[in-house]
């Protein structure tokens, strides 16, 4: 869900001027998701909620949501049960969406950005893979790509040197071969390649990232 929200926000940023009367609908779809992500990130101090329901039981249940009676277990990450992969992606989603709303709702954009900062800090401070602990929603790239992705979006949203330094510290020298919910390297490379000198950073400064 967070990855989809990030991509919908990126698409709106890139092509919003071509959406015409559909731009408000795009913003509404993004806000529907980010309202939920904000609740997940702020409902309980020290926790980020990341899932509801047993995925194995849900995948075997071919019914309408109104008729489902499978267990609605709630899953979360915390300092003792880290999840840098889901937290990094959530930070990316919130940061990207903050750019979408910057011109239309500055107060909401500010809330998204403040929360994105906190979520990425959580992902960096308490490192570990949520998918490894829970054995579903498995990711084959561990969590380095989500940390890079989240830091790249916060760098895009803030232009702050701290996120530039985080990106450099992560290395992220994997050779990107695809882009998906499970592998963000290519997307992060494209996003960072678009940084311009107008933002006080030259694309050449990211030469270490593009071998």
UniProtKB/TrEMBL annotation:
Domain Glycoside hydrolase family: 1-197
Coiled-coil ranges per UniProt: none
Keyword field: Carbohydrate metabolism, Cellulose degradation, Glycosidase, Hydrolase, Polysaccharide degradation
A GO MF label: cellulase activity
GO biological process: cellulose catabolic process
Annotated catalysed reactions: Endohydrolysis of (1->4)-beta-D-glucosidic linkages in cellulose, lichenin and cereal beta-D-glucans
Superkingdom of source: Eukaryota
Pfam families for this protein: Glyco_hydro_9
Record flagged with keyword Iron-sulfur: no
EC identifiers of the protein: 3.2.1.4
Main EC class the enzyme belongs to: hydrolase
Family, per entry: Belongs to the glycosyl hydrolase 9 (cellulase E) family.
Record protein name field: cellulase
């Amino acid at each position: 869900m967070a990855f989809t929200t990030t991509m919908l926000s990126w698409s709106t940023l890139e092509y919003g001027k071509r959406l015409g009367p559909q731009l408000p609908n795009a913003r509404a779809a993004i806000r529907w998701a980010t309202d939920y992500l904000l609740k997940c990130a702020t409902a309980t101090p020290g926790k980020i909620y990341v899932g509801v329901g047993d995925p194995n039981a849900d995948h075997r249940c071919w019914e309408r949501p109104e008729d489902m009676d499978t267990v609605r277990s709630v899953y979360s990450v915390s300092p003792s049960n880290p999840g840098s992969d889901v937290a990094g992606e959530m930070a990316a989603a919130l940061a990207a969406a903050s750019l979408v709303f910057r011109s239309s709702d500055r107060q909401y954009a500010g809330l998204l950005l403040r929360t994105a900062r906190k979520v990425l800090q959580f992902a960096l401070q308490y490192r570990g893979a949520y998918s490894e602990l829970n054995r579903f929603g498995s990711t084959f790239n561990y969590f380095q790509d989500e940390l890079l992705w989240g830091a790249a979006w916060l760098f895009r949203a803030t232009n702050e040197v701290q996120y530039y330094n985080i990106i450099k510290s992560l290395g992220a020298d994997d050779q990107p071969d695809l882009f998906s919910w499970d592998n963000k390297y290519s997307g992060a490379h494209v996003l960072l390649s678009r940084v311009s000198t107008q933002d006080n950073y030259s694309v050449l400064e990211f030469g270490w990232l593009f071998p």
